[in-house]
Amino acid sequence: SEFLALIACLLLAVPIAMSAPSGKPVWINPCGGKELAGGEGSQAESIPDNQLLTRIILASRNALAFAQKFSAAFVGDVFSRDVTPHHEEWKHTRYDWLPTENDIPKTLGESTPDEHLKDLAQSELNSFLLSSFRYLQTISVGLEQVHHDKDRHRAKFSNEFAQAQYKLRQVLCEVESALTIREPNVKIVDVTRSVMGSEYRNMKDETYRDLRDWIIFRDYMNSLEYLIDVCEFFKKSIPN
After folding, report:
1. 3-class DSSP assignment, residue 42
2. For the chain, does the N or the C end have fewer beta carbons within 10 angstroms?
3. Which helix (H) or strand (E) holds 35?
4. Per residue of the chain (240 residues), what is the pLDDT tens digit?
5. What H or E segment, with its residue span, contains residue 92?
6. Residue span of the signal peptide, if any (predicted)?
C-alpha cells in the first residue's frame, strides 16, 4: 500500500539523515558573536597588523602542535605505521572540494615556495586572509563530519577530533578578527555544509572512512603550515 511504501522510504532515509551533522556550524561566526571591529576610536582599530598576524600565528601553531601529536597516534593506531611513510603513499590523493594545489602550493611538511610568497607580496593582506578564511572553513566542514562519524560509531579518537575542531575555530576567530578590524565592512560569504558531497559523508566501509579522515586531517595540518608561513612572510614585510 501507499502507507507501507511511505514508511519504507522514511526508514531508508534515516541512516542518510544521520550521516550528516546538523545544528549551527562552528565555522560560522567563530568568535561567538563578539564585536570584532568597534566604532571610531575603539581599541580594535588601534591593533597594528604585526599584532594581528602574531595572534593568527600563535593560534595556528597551537592547533598544529596538537594536530601533529594526535596524527602520530591516529595513523599508528588506525594504519599501523608511522606518519611519514603513510603520508608519502597518499600525498597525491586529494579531494576536489578541499583546497587545491593552486590554492596551497605545498604538501604536508614542506615550506611554502618563495615564488608563491613573492606573488602574494603583490596582493593585499586582506585578500589572503579572506581566501584563507574560506579554506579553513572548508576544512572545518570536513572535520565536523569526521567527528560526527567517530561519535555516532563510538569510534576511537572522537574526542581528539572534537578538540581539533575547537582549535581550528580559534584560528578562524583570529583570521576573522584580523579581517574585520582591518576592513570593518568586509563581506564574508560563509562556506556551507553543501561543499562536502554525500559521497564523502555516506561512507559505510570503515577503511574508506579512515582514509577519508586522514586526507581531511592532513589537509588541515597543511593549511595551518601554509597560514603560518604566509603570515610570517607578511609580518616580516611590515616596516619597523
Report:
1. coil
2. C
3. none
4. 555 454 444 444 444 445 778 889 999 999 986 544 444 434 455 799 999 999 999 999 999 999 999 999 999 999 999 999 999 999 999 999 999 999 999 999 999 999 999 999 888 899 999 999 999 999 999 999 999 999 988 888 999 999 999 999 999 999 999 999 999 999 999 999 999 999 999 998 999 999 999 999 999 999 999 999 999 999 998 876
5. none
6. 1-19
Could you give all domains of the chain from N- to C-terminal order, each with its CATH number? 49-237 (1.20.1250.10)
Q: Are 176 and 133 in contact (CB under 8 A)?
A: yes
Q: Do residues 63 and 227 touch, judged by C-beta distance below 8 A? A: no
**With contact defined as beta carbons under 8 Å apart, do 236 and 117 qualify?**
no
Nearest to 172 by CA among 90, 81, 59, 43: 59
Residue 36 CA to residue 97 CA, distance in Å, equals: 29
Dist CA 19 CA 183 (whole Å): 38
How far is CA 152 from each of CA 66, 149, 167, 233, rounded to the nearest angstrom? 23, 5, 21, 41
**Cα distance between residue 110 and residue 225, in whole Å:** 8
